[in-house]
Structure formats: structure tokens, C-alpha cells
Design a protein that fits this description.
mainly alpha; elongated; about 80% helix; single chain
């Protein structure tokens, strides 16, 4: 049976793999594949964050974890690179058993992924509105 630590590491590695898929999809300019890969990244991060939250319960003040982004200014290339950095850091920190810092990196990565998902949803809504007007 896997420990919570092992599950966190597995989830972070899986999120990183899905992020790599989104980079490949980005190079192909396949928006559906990008959106699907990003969804999987989000799901894996959500699971890791759930496990971290159990580990730390109410001992963490996440309001101090800075997330610097203006949703309207999010660029997909930059955001994916930033999330990749954060996930890589989270993985290294979790491997070295610095789970609080790993939690912080994963939490911030999830915030960026949420912004990407919001921008995809907004774009789809706009496309749907255009189709309905025709």
C-alpha cells in the first residue's frame, strides 16, 4: 500500500507528464488536446493538494502564498513554463521531504492552471456566441 508521501509524488509526476503533453499539443496548435491535457494536470494537482491538506490540516495560511497574475494577461506559453517550474520544484521538495514548501509550489501551480482553464472556457463561450449569431 502506498503512503500519502508516495501518492503525492506520484500525482506530481503524473501532473508533470500531462503538462509535457500540453506542451506537445501547444506545438501542434491543437487546442482540444491542450485543454484536455490541462484538465488532467488540474486533476492531478487537485489530488496532490487534497493529500497535502490532510497532511497539514489547518496549520497553513495559504493567503501568504503569492500568485502574481492578471487573468486577462495570461499567456499560455509563459504559464505552462511557469507551472513546469513550480511542479519541478514541488517534486524535488517532496522528494527531500520538505512537504510544506512542496505544498506551496503545487498550490501556486494549481492557481495558474485554473487561470488557463478559465481562459479556455471564456474562449469557448465567445466562439459559441459567434456561432449562435450566424
Amino acid at each position: 500500500m502506498m503512503t500519502a508521501n508516495e501518492k503525492i509524488l506520484k500525482s506530481l509526476k503524473s501532473a508533470m507528464n500531462y503538462l509535457e503533453n500540453s506542451v506537445a499539443a501547444l506545438n501542434k496548435k491543437d487546442e482540444n488536446l491542450i485543454a484536455d491535457s490541462i484538465w488532467h494536470v488540474a486533476a492531478e494537482l487537485e489530488y496532490a493538494l487534497f493529500l497535502f491538506s490532510i497532511m497539514f490540516q489547518d496549520d497553513v495560511d495559504k493567503s501568504k502564498w503569492k500568485f502574481n497574475s492578471k487573468p486577462q494577461l495570461i499567456e499560455l506559453d509563459w504559464t505552462i513554463k511557469r507551472v513546469k517550474e513550480l511542479l519541478s520544484n514541488a517534486e524535488k521538495l517532496a522528494t527531500s521531504k520538505n512537504f510544506l514548501e512542496a505544498y506551496k509550489e503545487a498550490y501556486i501551480a494549481r492557481r495558474y492552471i485554473l487561470e488557463v482553464q478559465k481562459s479556455f472556457a471564456k474562449k469557448k463561450r465567445e466562439e459559441l456566441k459567434k456561432k449562435l449569431r450566424k
